[in-house]
Amino acid sequence: MSWLVTGGAGYIGAHVVRAFREAGIDAVVLDDLSTGFEAFIPSGVPFVRATLLDRDAVRKTFADHDIEGVVHIAGYKYAGVSVQRPLHCYEQNVSAMVILLQEMRDAGVDKFVFSSSAATYGTPDVDLVTEATATSPQSPYGETKLIGEWLLKDAGVAHDLRHTSLRYFNVVGSGTPELFDASPHNLFPLVFQALYEGRTPRINGDDYATPDGTCVRDYIHVADLAEAHVAAARRLGAGETIEPVYNLGCGDGSSVRQIMDTISSVTGIDFTPDVHPRRPGDPARIVANGDLAARDLDWQMRYSLEDMVATAWEARQKAGDRYPS
């Protein structure tokens, strides 16, 4: 039997697929390649090129493959842009998930690992976010992720769906040089692209109430994240108790200036970032407690910040001109 990985041709999804294969678990990828790359999918992994909004394609995928469970990573992930394109975000993240859950129900598939987000918390008023911290999303993107969690809760009651939601914080690094983060909105690829083009990276705001005045965030390595998906799938498959939500965070944060300094040190490129005004809505600090995930999913930080930068930079260099600019 196989696990269906939606969005399995993307940066995070491709790492999850590889982690499943290394764990001896077969995977099937469904991806429309709107942001992913077919080359990211390992040889021998069945690939369905389709959008989740195509109900017939989703139904056929379940009919053609012996699917045990679903890891749902596909979606529209740009929080800032979702404010300008809320209807598109809701279509991609909510309507598509409804179709997926309906077709899972009809196919008798009853295990689900959901790619949720720290965006469900909005701007928390606590130093350390736990799963009990109030959710208050401040973008359509964050709202759709929270609605996805609600859908799972209700489907679990109505259709005996076993599920868990993994709330990601800032995912960086690379588990293999062949897989890179090409997001036009994430900090690491933005800085790398600037350096690659000979431009000076920028910091948005240096007057926050933090030790160095720049925003503090929780950064986790994508390979650690992928392992957590494997652990969640195994726990669901074994019928073991599992929490509805887990934070995947490190319990300690790094500031944007620390990230810049580490990138300069690791790459050997000396630069002083330009400082621009704050972006509206950016909280000073978001850092998560990952104790629940450590207890149940063997969650741990296996990579240092230097490792995160070094692996990401190696992947960016290997990508060369294939990298979208």
From TrEMBL:
Catalytic activity: UDP-alpha-D-glucose = UDP-alpha-D-galactose
The UniProt record lists the keyword Lipid biosynthesis: no
Keywords: Carbohydrate metabolism, Isomerase, NAD
Name of the top EC class for this enzyme: isomerase
Annotated EC: 5.1.3.2
The protein's annotated pathway: Carbohydrate metabolism; galactose metabolism
GO biological process, one term: galactose catabolic process via UDP-galactose, Leloir pathway
Domain NAD-dependent epimerase/dehydratase: 3-249
Keyword Isomerase: yes
Gene3D superfamilies noted in UniProt: NAD(P)-binding Rossmann-like Domain (3.40.50.720), UDP-galactose 4-epimerase, domain 1 (3.90.25.10)
Molecular function GO terms recorded: UDP-glucose 4-epimerase activity
Cofactor(s) the protein requires to work: NAD(+)
Family classification: Belongs to the NAD(P)-dependent epimerase/dehydratase family.
Protein name (Swiss-Prot/TrEMBL): UDP-glucose 4-epimerase
Organism classification: Bacteria, Bacillati, Actinomycetota, Actinomycetes, Propionibacteriales
Gene name of the record: galE
